[in-house]
């Protein structure tokens, strides 16, 4: 636990399920004040709010579509109106859908880009604007992926969005470091979240994925939440502009693990 996080205000986008849920709950365990963002799953978001409160934190659920500029602005305003500040912006919301690249419509491309890349940009921009206006040396954390450096056939829109997030993170970190605002990303590998539940429920498919991971295990959402808490804390106060890969070694070219090549 990080004592300096107690009482800090955080927004977590896409926090009703999956990685966002785990991160919001971990922030609650740190006794932070958390804005639990959701797009459509209000009941799930409210359950996250209740768990945060049970853990000693404070929380509200706020509906917002991160691909819409006015919604992102309202999300920031909700943090200010309810809790009076914004110290940590966790841009987690994201979508993915498997489509062969030659069959991908512009509509399908734009859907993923608008949420994953544009939504992250607007979250960064509005949070940084707030922090500058209120002289807050805050932290922005973006959810990237191992697929910001590992190509992923049938997911060109997703991989492109995550590659963009990586460079966005580095650019913003460089630009706002003199103002005391840190900007970092998390690059998860294969994590046991609802979006992957069907794939990992098949033992053979799960085994195929585990072969791509040197540690030979699927990650848990709580392991990503631990990374988020560290990046948000003063323990990481000299860290900016990085993508911290929490992937069991997936980015280490596992096919070379036996020393061949």
UniProtKB/TrEMBL annotation:
A Pfam match: adh_short_C2
Keywords: Oxidoreductase
Transmembrane stretches, start-end: none
Family statement drawn from the similarity comment of this UniProt entry: Belongs to the short-chain dehydrogenases/reductases (SDR) family.
Domain of life of the source: Bacteria
Organism in which the protein naturally occurs: Priestia flexa
Assembly and oligomerization: Homotetramer.
Catalyses which reaction(s): D-glucose + NADP(+) = D-glucono-1,5-lactone + NADPH + H(+); D-glucose + NAD(+) = D-glucono-1,5-lactone + NADH + H(+)
Name recorded for this polypeptide: glucose 1-dehydrogenase [NAD(P)(+)]
Metal-binding is among the record's keywords: no
Signal peptide range: none
Upper taxonomic lineage: Bacteria, Bacillati, Bacillota, Bacilli, Bacillales
GO MF: glucose 1-dehydrogenase [NAD(P)+] activity
EC id: 1.1.1.47
